[in-house]
């Protein structure tokens, strides 16, 4: 008796510490079987490499020397935000209050299903080994960042031969900071890294990795006249199908929409999701394009102010590139949010801005913008500046693929000759005005991004935010 009490106290202590996952065994047969669904989830699901890889080698072209390297990465796989978590929980209550046996694709709910949000403290946070629903979940934000760090070393480790002390910059969202810390852990203890947590509060103004947060001028609804036209009949069809299979269940179109997010975040937290199997392929394509459309008109080329928002960070990276000869530091690593990366890519011009996406139908020939390809959880954008003989070049790699600048790619490895690149960049930022367009002065008097240059003296250590 005494022994069993001791054991249960011990077990409770270990569970609280989050170290020993007690409970159901891992579902080995299911984990890893749903990766083909990741690209349809609007970037909310686990990381995958850019599917539009043109076949260009990631290797440094023959005879060239890397002069400077930047990385801008998204945090890793996470639980839903507070607001999305509340929405998913509402749909879960509807299902969990259903008193009959489930039929059809909801039958899995008959089998002892455990809702994947077990603790509201997990909301907004990375998924980790400790907080996963399944002991073998391979898609945690923690593991993604550590694996990324190892791959990063395999690819660019030579850049650290003469530089073992350096900073890594993270926006002050807790999940972003935690991802940077997992990445640092993954790099290993041969480095002396100082993690600089740069405020993403509105008051940070221009000195931020998350310009979107310092942009009161940004209006989520600015292009709703276009977005409202997108046909969402498929959501009603899903709800009808599930209600027909399960008499008395009253799912709405909005519940159907929520199920896609449930699928994505459950994959991050458990490693598989039976909810993902509710949808037909057509429905996944409809949903996925809806995500592309929204993102294009809220944070991409479809919203005219975005070029200005992305210019805040793009201008800073241009300044670093131009200083490569005088900067001792060769590698600049930063972590932020998906929207900030999309804003940055929009200013660079790496997302097609010649064709505005249509809301009238799902386009195939005219759509190269797939949100999930650019910003899955754990997304990573590299800027490489390298010298070959007497010339220097710049190119971008997104999620393991070289993605050339459409009008400037005649250099080795489809890179852009550096002076051509600076001319190109000047045109991209011409007419942009982050401070004015965003009305930054209404929330902050900080008008310049300085953290890459003054981190030695300022030491950024901002309060972490769950946002
Ligand atoms: C230009 C711009 N300003 C403000 C916003 C408002 N906004 C919505 S989400 C978000 C931060 C990103 O949050 P989330 O979608 O949860 O991305 P994640 O942290 O998962 O990368 C911001 C700043 C925006 N999307 N775009």
Question: Can you tell me about this structure?
Answer:
- This protein has 467 residues and is of the alpha/beta class.
- The chain has one domain: Phosphoglycerate mutase-like (Rossmann fold, 3-Layer(aba) Sandwich), CATH 3.40.50.
- The protein contains 14 helices and 8 strands.
- Strands 1, 2, 3, 4, 5, 6, 7 and 8 form an 8-stranded mixed beta sheet that branches.
- Strand 6 (391-398) and strand 7 form a beta hairpin.
- Helix 2 (82-96) packs across helix 7.
- It is globular, with a radius of gyration of 23 Å.
- 44% of the residues are buried.
- The model is unreliable at 1-17 (pLDDT under 50).
- The site of thiamine diphosphate (TPP) has 14 residues, from helix 8 and helix 10.
- Thiamine diphosphate binds next to helix 8 and helix 10.
In total, the number of strands is 8
CATH overall fold name: Rossmann fold
CATH C-level class is: Alpha Beta
SS-derived structural category: alpha/beta
CATH superfamily: Phosphoglycerate mutase-like
- Number of helices, where a helix is a run of at least 4 consecutive DSSP H or I residues: 14
Protein name: acid phosphatase
Keywords: Glycoprotein, Hydrolase, Signal
Pfam families: His_Phos_2
EC number: 3.1.3.2
Blueprint (SSEs and pairs):
Elements: H1 2-17, E1 64-74, H2 82-96, H3 141-156, E2 165-171, H4 174-187, E3 192-198, H5 224-227, H6 233-245, H7 253-270, H8 281-299, H9 306-322, E4 331-336, H10 338-348, H11 371-374, E5 380-388, E6 391-398, E7 401-402, E8 416-417, H12 418-429, H13 434-438, H14 451-458
Parallel strand pairs: 1-4, 2-3, 2-4
Antiparallel strand pairs: 1-5, 5-6, 6-7, 6-8
Helix pairs in contact: 2-7, 3-4, 6-7, 9-10, 9-12
């Amino acid at each position: 008796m005494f022994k069993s009490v001791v054991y249960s106290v011990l077990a409770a202590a270990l569970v609280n510490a989050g170290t020993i996952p007690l409970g159901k065994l891992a579902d080995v047969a299911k984990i890893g079987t749903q990766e083909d669904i990741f690209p349809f989830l609007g970037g909310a699901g686990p990381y995958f490499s850019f599917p539009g890889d043109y076949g260009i080698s990631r290797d440094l072209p023959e005879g060239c020397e890397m002069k400077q390297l930047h990385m801008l990465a998204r945090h890793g796989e996470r639980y839903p935000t507070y607001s999305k978590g509340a929405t998913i929980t509402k749909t879960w209550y509807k299902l969990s209050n259903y008193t009959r046996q489930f039929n059809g694709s909801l039958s899995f709910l008959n089998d002892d299903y455990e809702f994947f949000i077990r603790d509201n403290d997990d909301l907004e946070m990375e998924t980790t080994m400790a907080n996963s629903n399944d002991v073998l979940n391979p898609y945690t934000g923690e593991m993604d960042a550590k694996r990324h760090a190892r791959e990063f070393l395999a690819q660019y480790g030579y850049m650290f031969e003469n530089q073992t002390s350096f900073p890594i910059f993270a926006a002050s969202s807790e999940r972003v900071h935690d991802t940077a810390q997992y990445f640092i852990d993954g790099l290993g203890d041969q480095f002396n890294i100082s993690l600089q947590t740069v405020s993403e509060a509105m008051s940070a103004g221009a000195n931020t990795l998350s310009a979107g947060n310092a942009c009161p001028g940004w209006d989520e609804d600015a292009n709703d006249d276009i977005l409202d036209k997108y046909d969402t009949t498929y959501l009603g069809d899903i709800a009808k199908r599930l209600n027909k299979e399960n008499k008395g269940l009253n799912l709405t179109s909005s519940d159907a929409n929520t199920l896609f997010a449930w699928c994505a975040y459950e994959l991050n937290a458990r490693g598989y999701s039976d909810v993902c199997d509710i949808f037909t392929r057509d429905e996944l394509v409809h949903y996925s394009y809806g995500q592309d459309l929204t993102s294009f008109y809220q944070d991409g080329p479809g919203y005219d102010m975005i070029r200005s928002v992305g210019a805040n960070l793009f201008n800073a990276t241009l300044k670093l590139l131009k200083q490569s000869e005088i900067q001792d530091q060769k590698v600049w690593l930063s972590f932020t949010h998906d929207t900030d990366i999309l804003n940055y890519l929009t200013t660079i011009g790496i997302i097609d801005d010649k064709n505005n996406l249509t809301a009238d139908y799902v386009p195939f020939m005219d759509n190269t913008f797939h949100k999930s390809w650019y910003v899955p959880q754990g997304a990573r954008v590299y800027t490489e500046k390298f010298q070959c003989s007497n010339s220097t070049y710049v190119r971008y790699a997104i999620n393991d693929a070289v993605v050339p600048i459409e009008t400037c790619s005649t250099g080795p490895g489809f890179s852009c000759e550096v002076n051509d690149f600076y001319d190109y960049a000047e045109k991209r930022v011409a007419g942009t005005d982050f401070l004015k367009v965003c009305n930054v002065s209404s929330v902050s008097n900080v008008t310049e991004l300085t953290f890459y240059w003054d981190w030695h003296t300022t030491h950024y250590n901002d309060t972490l935010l769950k946002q």
